[in-house]
């Protein structure tokens, strides 16, 4: 299986890439490191006036904790590093291999992938990938079936499937405006396109079955307690109990043109 663009995942738009953005939890880790570094470098200025301290407090404002994010610090740091590589892979000046985008080959038997069992493998890495990890890469970057013969020879190379096109991603970016999880500020170009109804269960690769989710949210969508439902082509989100005890479905998306506007004041 070819995990082409599997790590350079999904909602790629034509707009210029910005500095990496992450989930609120990841921002908190970065802010803590910034606070420690600032204290070390400017310890001699501990006598700053209170007005200056207030100004700093506004810059380094607290970050909300993301419900359901149970990753360790190491896992969060790995997520930040992954986002950096994803952004770099989408840069126009990034080197290619024979004209193709940076590619990671993930090997797994098709029966194992469809049944959700077994393990996948990446050349150069000794340890296996869980089927969940493989499925996440496939969901984000598509797959290309390769049929091997009994002697190990390639007898058929298929075309890339289960892959959201650039046009679909632009439409998702316009509709969702970034990660649909409430409180997450990750912009469209750093998100992944997620099948609401999984492809393995018959879900289609259409925009009315897709939402944009940040890397961390995509990796934990099955365990974090967030639920997504598509209604008339628009995503609705229900949070976990710890986030929303009322378990209310709410429309997601940040497009200001999604609902009719009132008559502007200059026309009244």
How would you describe what is shown here?
The protein is an alpha+beta fold and 268 residues long. It is built from seven helices and eleven strands. Strands 1-2-3-4 form a four-stranded antiparallel beta sheet, with helices on one face. It has a three-stranded antiparallel beta sheet with strand order 9-10-11, with no helix packed on it. A hairpin with a 5-residue loop joins β5 (146-148) and β6 (154-157).
Entry keywords:
268 residues; alpha+beta; DNA Binding (I), subunit A; 4-stranded antiparallel beta sheet; 3-stranded antiparallel beta sheet; 7 helices; 11 strands
How is the largest sheet built, in terms of strand order?
1-2-3-4
Question: Measured on Cα atoms, how large is the radius of gyration?
Answer: 21 Å
How many separate domains make up the residues? 2
Number of strands: 11
Give start-end ranges of low-pLDDT stretches: 1-66
Apparent shape:
globular
Order of helices and strands: EHHHEHEEHEEHEEHEEE
Strand content: 15-25%
Task: Report the oligomer.
Answer: single chain
Count of alpha/pi helices: 7
What percent of residues adopt helix (DSSP H or I)?
Answer: 25-40%
Sheet bearing the most strands, described?
A: 4 strands, antiparallel
Helical/strand content category: alpha+beta
How far apart lie the N and C ends? 60 Å
Q: What is the arithmetic mean of pLDDT?
A: 70
């Amino acid at each position: 299986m070819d995990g082409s663009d599997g790590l350079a995942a999904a909602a790629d738009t034509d707009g210029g890439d910005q500095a990496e953005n992450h989930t609120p939890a990841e921002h908190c880790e970065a802010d803590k490191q910034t606070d420690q570094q600032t204290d070390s470098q400017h310890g001699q200025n501990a006598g700053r006036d209170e007005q200056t301290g207030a100004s700093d407090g506004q810059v380094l404002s607290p970050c909300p904790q993301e419900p359901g994010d149970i990753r360790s610090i190491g896992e969060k740091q790995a997520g930040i590093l992954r986002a950096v590589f994803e952004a770099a892979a989408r840069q126009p000046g990034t080197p290619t291999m024979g004209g193709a985008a940076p590619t990671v080959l993930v090997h797994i038997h098709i029966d194992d992938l469809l049944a959700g069992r077994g393990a996948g493998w990446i050349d150069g890495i000794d340890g296996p990938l869980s089927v969940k990890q493989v499925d996440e890469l496939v969901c984000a970057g598509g797959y290309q079936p390769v049929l091997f013969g009994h002697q190990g020879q390639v007898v058929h190379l298929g075309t890339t499937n289960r892959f959201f096109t650039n046009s679909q991603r632009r439409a998702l970016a316009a509709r969702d405006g970034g990660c649909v999880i409430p409180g997450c500020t990750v912009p469209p170009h750093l998100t992944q396109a997620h099948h609401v109804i999984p492809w393995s269960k018959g879900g289609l690769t259409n925009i009315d079955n897709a939402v944009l989710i940040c890397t961390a949210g995509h990796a934990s969508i099955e365990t974090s307690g967030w639920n997504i439902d598509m209604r008339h082509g628009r995503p609705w989100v229900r949070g976990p109990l710890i986030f929303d005890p009322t378990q209310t479905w709410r429309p997601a998306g940040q497009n200001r043109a999604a609902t009719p506007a009132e008559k502007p004041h200059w026309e009244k």
